[in-house]
Amino acid sequence: MTELPDAPPLTGITVVSVEQAVAAPFATRQLADLGARVIKVERPGGGDFARRYDATVHGESSYFVWLNRSKESVTLDLKSERGRHVLEQLLADADVFVQNLAPGAADRMGLGPEALAARFPSLIPCAISGYGTSGPWADRKAYDLLVQCQTGLVSLTGNEHGTARAGVSVADIAAGMYAYSGILTALFRRATTGVARAVEVSLFEALAEWVSQPAYYTRYGGSQPPRIGTQHATIAPYGTYTAADGKDVLFSIQNEREWSALCEGFLRRPELVADPRFATGSARVTHRQELNAVVSARFTESDSAEVMRQLDEAGIANAGVNDIEEFLAHPVLSARDRWRDVPIPGGATVRALRPPADLAGTAPRMDAVPSAGEHTGAVLAALGYGRDEIDAMRADHVI
């Protein structure tokens, strides 16, 4: 007899989110993946502006499709009295409230943590901001690349010719991840103590945590790590080299055992193991240019497949440098059954990756991406609104 999968672990948890862009939707999508009911509140007349970032996925935004599956979309004008009343009704039955409104907007609408605690003592509020809700930059707007700049990440990314942004929205993703884990922690605390605590995450402080290693290096080393492209700033050899067929291959040496294996099994230069220029990790970084010349010369002797085969034989971690098309066709994703079909507005489907954390015996929830306001009528009806009331609110652009 086939064993049925367990119910998702957050089944029965309701999340209301006044969200837009990336950070908050990323946090709530992960809660939805675990089975939470996520009611996404959007603006009437267009919804979350991330819906219009691009139109590459069958006419939908790649950002929005990534971030918003398995949610219910409700449109509400929160500047109107009736819209705010509906939100209050939703919050009365919710477990979690997430918002990444503009600086100060939540407090002006009575949606700050203290005001919410007074009205809904069991509700867990989560605020996602740019630079925190207090302090000298509390009133500043913040977007991903601005925060990459402010934390110094952009100064670390690139090469000797100039800086570069990270290729994904790393500040938003960091904040979304900490909001997600913070909400889970608050739900656990409420379950064990009965006390609901607020969660606050800023993009700046989330990414600040992620740049802590170069921050330590700079504070105590006297200068920040250099920009050296795909090379590692503090480990050598660790980076990409071009094989005889023109394809780049990256490999990494993490310790002296691997260094010996590289010299003897791949470079065929056993005398380099004890060469004082390369005998320690710090020496190899100091003499990086000389070391790179040795490695690059060896790479020109073999094509990329042969280079990777020989590195494998030597026990050296390595990988070809894939583009996104090659990533999409990666054998690990297909062999491990990571792809699922998810419906999107308009009737098409997209291939989406399963969440990376597998919980034994439980299947992730991967339902449709909603159109703007798709669930407004049903949600209002469940709150007790009649058809005439709903039609009147729609005519008045409240929903």
What topology does this entry show?
Blueprint: E1 14-18, H1 23-33, E2 37-42, H2 62-67, E3 71-75, H3 81-92, E4 96-99, H4 105-108, H5 113-119, E5 124-129, H6 144-150, H7 153-156, E6 158-159, E7 162-163, H8 170-193, E8 199-202, H9 203-210, H10 212-221, E9 238-242, E10 248-252, H11 256-267, H12 281-286, H13 288-299, H14 304-313, E11 318-320, H15 324-328, H16 331-335, E12 339-343, E13 349-353, H17 376-382, H18 387-395
Helix pairs in contact: 1-8, 8-9
Summary keywords:
399 residues; alpha/beta; Rossmann fold; formyl-coa transferase, domain 3; 2 domains; 6-stranded parallel β-sheet; 3-stranded antiparallel β-sheet; 14% strand
Task: Give a structural overview.
The chain has 399 residues and is of the alpha/beta class. The chain has 2 domains: 14-211 and 335-395, Crotonobetainyl-coa:carnitine coa-transferase, domain 1 (Rossmann fold, 3-Layer(aba) Sandwich); 238-320, formyl-coa transferase, domain 3. The chain has 18 helices and 13 strands. It has helices at residues 23-33, 62-67, 81-92, 105-108, 113-119, 144-150, 153-156, 170-193, 203-210, 212-221, 256-267, 281-286, 288-299, 304-313, 324-328, 331-335, 376-382, 387-395; strands spanning 14-18, 37-42, 71-75, 96-99, 124-129, 158-159, 162-163, 199-202, 238-242, 248-252, 318-320, 339-343, 349-353. A 6-stranded parallel beta sheet has the order 3-2-1-4-5-8, with helices on both faces. A 3-stranded antiparallel beta sheet has the order 9-10-11, covered by helices on one side. The two termini are 48 Å apart. The model has no long low-confidence stretch (mean pLDDT 94).
